[in-house]
Design a protein that fits this description.
Blueprint (H helix, E strand, L loop, with lengths): L2 E4 L15 E7 L8 E9 L13 E5 L3 E2 L3 E4 L2 E7 L6 E9 L2 E2 L3 E5 L7 E3 L3 E3 L41 E18 L11 E3 L7 E14 L2 E17 L9 E20 L2 E22 L10 E22 L3 E12 L3 E16 L2 E18 L4 E20 L1
Antiparallel strand pairs: 1-4, 2-3, 3-7, 4-8, 5-7, 6-7, 8-9, 8-10, 11-12, 13-14, 13-15, 13-23, 15-16, 16-17, 17-18, 18-19, 19-20, 20-21, 21-22, 22-23
Length: about 400
């Protein structure tokens, strides 16, 4: 709580004239230590800025801790007292002075250290705190009220970030390029599927180049880092020409979406975190396939060629490894198998991502991967088995993302 101290009678050290219009308070030294003392200097001036005389007994001090000695005159308009700092004091001590309706600004004296420090007395010479005269009791005349010093707010210092702090969320997007191989084989001579085998890549022809985009977001529960969730999208474009340049190229989009639930076991080794885990999820993607359409009115006519999309969906399972080296570098790798009807293997893939945090909340990463799919084609109301599809997509990408 605050301490109000009345001052002792003035010493005969000159008599400046003029009414006190301003009061300035300073501390020397500017900071103190527990059990030590500091000199509190008071300068009084009139409206013209000249030293002004005052009765020290009418000067009232307000302090948030410690004891004040009586105020003594040490020069024209100059006064001094001694503030004794308690041995258990911490933080800051606020001091202000007032005379009648004139008050000084509040000054703050930082208190730090464990050893007692000598206070500076008489405008220069050190004076031990224990030699200070005891505080005089207030006289019967009540001092003018002084505004109470504002209570110091306790501010919580943020915890310094260490190398073992890891982002729990990463979300980004960027470019996706690659090479695509495609194969379609009809199982019926005059079936609905294009009767000639179609092959792009797979060592039999040059693969098709692809370009597109990718999006991905992965988060681990902040309060339970063993469990996480992920969602992703890949979209690429490629084109194919069926008859050696006699027709227009056919452009197609390769789209894939996935959602996964992850479980992992993290292991910290110095500034490196290793994690081992697995995941299960849902995947959906599309195939391009070609079919031949016969003219019912002219069975002898050559069939026309059309193309369509075949969407597939199923569940997936996989394993993954991760590593984070210090606060900046990270690496993720995984292998996934996709199923249809929860039993038949439809796809398999392997992915690798290497990233670097440019700043605390932004990262850049590069990724490579291989995505392979096989599927049978069933046609008509009876779901007749009419052909096979297979493709392979080798990708490489660059992403920019946000992390926290």
């Amino acid at each position: 709580g605050g301490v109000v101290v009345a001052a002792a009678p003035p010493s005969a050290m000159g008599s400046p004239v003029g009414t006190v219009a301003s009061i300035a308070v300073t501390a020397e030294p500017a900071s103190g230590t527990p059990g030590g003392a500091v000199a509190i200097k008071v300068n009084m001036a009139d409206a013209a800025g000249r030293p002004a005389a005052a009765d020290p007994t009418k000067v009232v001090f307000l302090t948030t801790a410690g004891q004040m000695t009586p105020l003594q005159a040490v020069g024209p308009g100059q006064y001094q007292a001694l503030l004794s700092i308690p041995a258990d004091a911490t933080g800051n001590i606020n001091v202000a002075a007032s005379l009648g309706t004139v008050g000084s600004p509040i000054i703050t004296i930082p208190v730090s250290g464990a050893a007692a420090a000598a206070a500076v007395g008489a405008w220069g010479a050190a004076a031990p705190a224990q030699q200070a005269a005891p505080a005089q009791p207030p006289q019967q005349a009540q001092p003018e009220p002084v505004a109470k010093a504002p209570k110091q707010k306790k501010t919580r210092q943020p915890r310094a970030k260490s190398n073992t702090d890891r982002p729990w969320l990463r979300a980004g997007g960027g470019y996706l390029g690659g090479f695509y191989g495609y194969k379609e084989v009809s199982q019926q001579t005059s079936g609905p599927i294009y009767e000639e085998p179609i092959t792009v890549g797979f060592g039999e022809a040059s693969p098709a180049g692809t370009f597109g985009m990718q999006l991905n977001a992965k988060a681990w529960l902040p309060f339970f880092e063993f469990v996480g969730f992920e969602a992703g999208f890949r979209g690429s474009r490629w084109q194919i020409q069926l008859d050696e340049g006699d027709s227009e190229p056919i452009a197609d989009g390769l789209n894939a979406i996935s959602a996964r639930a992850h479980g992992r076991y993290p292991l910290d080794v110095g500034n490196t975190r290793l994690s081992f885990g697995g995941f299960l999820g849902f995947h959906s993607s599309d195939f391009l396939y070609f079919r031949q359409v016969f003219d019912e009115n002219d069975p002898a006519a050559e069939p026309s060629t059309e193309y369509d999309q075949l969407w597939t969906a199923g569940n997936s399972y996989g394993i993954e490894l991760g590593a984070e080296f210090g606060p900046r570098f990270f690496l993720n790798g995984g292998y996934e198998m996709g199923f249809t009807d929860y039993s038949a293997i439809f796809s398999d893939s392997v992915e690798l991502e290497i990233g670097y945090a440019l700043i605390d909340n932004m990262y850049i990463s590069g990724n490579v991967g291989r995505f392979h799919r096989v599927s049978k084609i069933y046609y008509g109301d009876d779901k007749d088995y009419v052909g096979d599809l297979e493709d392979q997509h080798l990708v490489f990408g660059l992403m920019l993302g946000y992390q926290m």
